[in-house]
Amino acid sequence: MGSTAVLVILIALVVLIALVVIAGIALYNSLIRLRLRVDEAWSQIDVQLKRRHDLIPNLVNAVRGYMEFEQETLTAVTNARANAVSAGAAGPAAAAAAENALTATLRSLFAVVENYPQLRANENVMSLQEELTTTENRIAFARQHYNATTRDYNTSVASFPNVILARQFGFTARDFFDAEPEAAAVPEVRLR
Fold first, then answer.
1. 76 in a domain, yes or no?
2. Residue 113, C-beta contacts closer than 8 angstroms, at least 6 positions apart
3. pTM to 2 decimals?
4. What percent of the chain has pLDDT over 90?
């Protein structure tokens, strides 16, 4: 083998190593980009949850004077809010469970409000209910976006050849923000 053949093999080897390094860098950067999108989507959920958490004390205070016999419902909402606020740092699974419990207590509060005609006529209560409904819609949209970006990220982390690089650099699958079990059931509509 001549020196020219050795030089060609050496150049081919260097080019091959450079291509593998470039492909590895591209894979790593794509995983970083996807992970950041998941983090951004989670922060959007967090913003809407904080907005929700801020509205709830105002609603409780607005209805407290009218609902002297419904203290148990107000206490349940206040406790569920406190649990939801503290669960936010525990990740999507814990936050989803706490938020689903909060949603259930809010539903019971709104059902109780329906029994008080003077509350239904109160503009402040109606405004707060409308703001909460709007916030719930924003949370649902943010949840959809988060789950879509999480799906894309998890797919990338589990796909070949990314899985090899993902394991070495600590990229792990993320949890989805699951909707409350009641959301899967079709609501029954009764027209009077």
1. yes
2. 63, 67, 119, 120, 125, 129
3. 0.76
4. 49
